[in-house]
């Protein structure tokens, strides 16, 4: 499995097949039991700081306000001063994520979806060159989700960032990705690799095109084959 | 609280008038109350007890600061490093098990009969709970938070300061609460063991004179101070660990 | 024969300081009187008096000052047997120090132990008689036991140490030779002795009789140099650790025996001189330890058993 | 660990030969080692020290059980009820601040010279940390878990037993660790203060006789026992709080 | 808002509009700031035990194995013995949720979706008459999700249970519900009530019917109107 720089890949597969684990291996958080991960020609042995990762849980820190949580990666990389300077940027990200006005709120006052959005903002704030996303939009309503998807595409294209997304939504995978990896159920293997050759930038109205429908169907069929019951 | 107090004094009074316990062991509540007034009066009018009180307060204050600093540092060493956990912790436990009394001569030999040796002993007693609390706190962070910090490329130091320590605050405060109470006991023990012109000595003198009511009165004043220190820690916890429900109230 | 159990409390775990008890047990003198002694140790005279007052112990070995103090507080405890007629305390200075008399100590700090409040009164009485008063002329520093006292000497924070005869013997034995500069006339400020509550004495005169007799017999046995080995054995049985180093134990015993010789042999072992009691009492009043003089000092001690004790079978 | 030991003994030895500290205060490492052998030999050959050791072990054992039971119960009272938090806790803090030494005569008066009074004192000292730990643990459960139990119609008792207590286990163990060390110190203090034919008395005798090397040797044996108790608690924590990372290892 | 006994209602609305809070109020966990909740004629003042609730987080207890977590409601209601007796039932539920073989595993070894499924099993095991579900299927893949939806319908119909579901998937809401409540964004109000008059039992192939499509469109339009940007 090779991710080209600037490419957008998705992984789709049944629950428990090892997608989160795969992501953790790619981030260098968990040692792989076999095989190796290479990033920009060098093997990944430990975590690297140009990776932005979002876990399935939001993992916000309760003692920091939302905006402080968001600038945390900056604070870690460049110190307090840089973090203070990044407040504007963080506020812009919050606006984008529909969290305007929640800057100084503590995370325990956020709803599930809001926490997830805040976690996305935190990942984006440091402009990482590789994004690893574990079901970032699962707790969002469709509308917000579509909007966030388009934002994500814009951000990745702007920065030529490499993204790797775990999702359960086939349309989401198709609209965002260059390649979709379908995983078979436990033990998870990559069952099929589907190249998505829709033109970039993608727009939401592509969803209604027949080509899009065909791709979705193809992936769904693939997943049905390995169905768990 | 008042009820408990009344019940408590009631039992005390009943024990007293039953005549089962000699007044040199358990004085009557009235005698004790009288002595409390006497001591209070002495303190308020700037009598001879004010100096000792001030001395003990100083000891407690310095020892608490020292114990917090020391306990925190050692707690981080023990909780954060394998070296600390494996190599240092057994020594700390072993030292803490030792009767502190045995160290009094050493402290006095090195630090003299002044306030220093008492501060050292009180610090010694209060440090261990803070070490254990801090170390336990460092283990409290969950897997996801750890991984998140790794992906952010946080140094070990940053992970410690920005994640593990705040996460461990409730544990740290548990240790601090226990230590805050120990520091008072430690100062008095120190004064008992040698030198020191603090409240401990007043208690000693009263005790040798079999003036048990006075002993009780002095001890009650100490308790109030201890309570105040403890409450300060509780207040600090409410203030700094605001995200955790630290009270029973509003719970049911 | 029915044995009566008597719990005896001493202010320290030392068997040597309570030698009549352990020798009496070892030689079976108590058993002959129908008494089974259960020796216990607490920390200091106040704890002894508290143990007596609570009925957990029947006979104890407190200092005279705490006994006066207890009576002043309405706890009727009677001194029965004066085992250290010559002061058990001394103002001790290092052998090499240039102090020879208490008034040389003017302007210095004096360490006092923690085992007994009595030594403070003792020292204060002596220094008072030299016209010295605290805090103008000297300062007391409570230093605890001998170990901390040596620390005080090393740090030059104290110039003298008011300690017991045992302290002197121990310090000397451990390489810290000490000299006693207490003037001879203060030898009347006697040390710890055997006491019980008035109530107990009244209810059990025959036990007090038997107990004292056994002690006198044990004292005589101990004082006979021919018995020294057996005495040391008995003491080691009472406190094996103390008896481990026989030479040391012997030195300590010698010191105890030396202070135990009555001022007037004709009155018998255990006799208490009313004048000496008065001296203690007056000292305590003078120093303020005792708020008011006792109306009748004779309730504090009794010599009524002395004769019977010294009439040996 | 061995390194620390060598460094430690090295400093000790250097202090000793510098002659700055009298051997009465700090014996030489060699003398201490000799005494350690002597005591060990005495214990192994069933010498007179075996009885005292056994006595102290019994005290520690009973006191630990009692302190755990008492500390746990009071901790639940304090952590679970407003009454406990508001009305009982201040008294517990006040009592714990008091110099325990002052209570020794009371314990002896009520419980006698036997093992009971020492067990009581040791229990007294070790209970407070367990109370604080248990109470802190009861506040550790998160909002969601509380709500879940409410929707399941759990009684207060069930919520306590099936959710709050397991959640609070790490805090409880923090208290238990501190208490396990306190219980040893408490037993020895109890023996110092009155009666009891335990190890504390051996230390006291050696100390009055200024046999400092012996004092050190005896204390070292006590420390080893204290360490063993502590390690048992650590082991129990690993065993019962298996879901929490309780060690530094495998962490980095 | 009235829920008929045995009816299935859904709430749909943008993230942070107060759906979770609404559920908590209905369960009697949070006091409402205005209005009141009545259940079977009586006002809900505190939590009631015939309510089965699932939160947005799985909230499994780490010291209990999966099966012990599942029988917890039984244990609480009827004691240990009943819980042991319910193991078979729990195992059947686990099989249904595709968690066969994970009975004796501790929750920290489950993936996000598996934990969610275990939480559903826990809710179902005590056969509550009212089900309150907060995004129960958000971390599941489409296939598992469809399957779980059908199971949920079956269970509700079998027991005549009243269900109330929070979801972000419009098709999910439509296929399961008798009534769909659309909430407007913050501050959340019920903007429209859509009655779904599709015949019961619903099947997955209804999704392709025009009537279904029309309903989905109607709801989507409603949500679009109150869109958050
Ligand atoms: N503990 C709290 N204290 C104060 N405000 C809170 C608290 N929890 C939630 N809120 C606020 O209440 C509003 C509704 O939250 P709720 O969790 O009900 O949203 P939701 O509709 O479930 O959203 P989502 O779909 O993202 O889960 C949010 O705006 C949130 O900020
Ligand atoms: N800490 C762990 N220890 C042991 N096994 C684990 C652990 N975490 C996960 N697993 C197992 O690894 C497998 C893959 O888990 P993973 O979290 O990667 O699944 P996933 O594909 O992300 O599923 P989901 O879509 O439900 O999040 C699962 O079968 C799970 O039981
Ligand atoms: Mg996952
Ligand atoms: Mg919600």
From TrEMBL, chains A, E:
InterPro entries linked: AAA+_ATPase (IPR003593), ABC_transporter-like_ATP-bd (IPR003439), ABC_transporter-like_CS (IPR017871), ABC_transporter_ATP-bind (IPR050166), P-loop_NTPase (IPR027417)
One family name in Pfam for this protein: ABC_tran
Family named by the database record: Belongs to the ABC transporter superfamily.
Record's keyword terms, sorted: ATP-binding, Nucleotide-binding, Transport
GO molecular function: ATP binding; ATP hydrolysis activity
Name of the molecule in the record: ABC transporter ATP-binding protein
Domain of life: Bacteria
Domain ABC transporter as annotated: residue spans: 1-210
Organism name: Halovulum dunhuangense
From TrEMBL, chains B, D:
GO CC terms: plasma membrane
Localization per record: Cell membrane
Cross-referenced Gene3D superfamilies: MetI-like
SUPFAM superfamilies xrefs: MetI-like
Top-level taxon of origin: Bacteria
Domain ABC transmembrane type-1 per the UniProt entry, residue ranges: 53-233
InterPro entries: MetI-like, MetI-like_sf
UniProt keywords, alphabetically: Cell membrane, Membrane, Transmembrane, Transmembrane helix, Transport
Name of this protein: ABC transporter permease
Organism: Halovulum dunhuangense
Organism placement in taxonomy: Bacteria, Pseudomonadati, Pseudomonadota, Alphaproteobacteria, Rhodobacterales
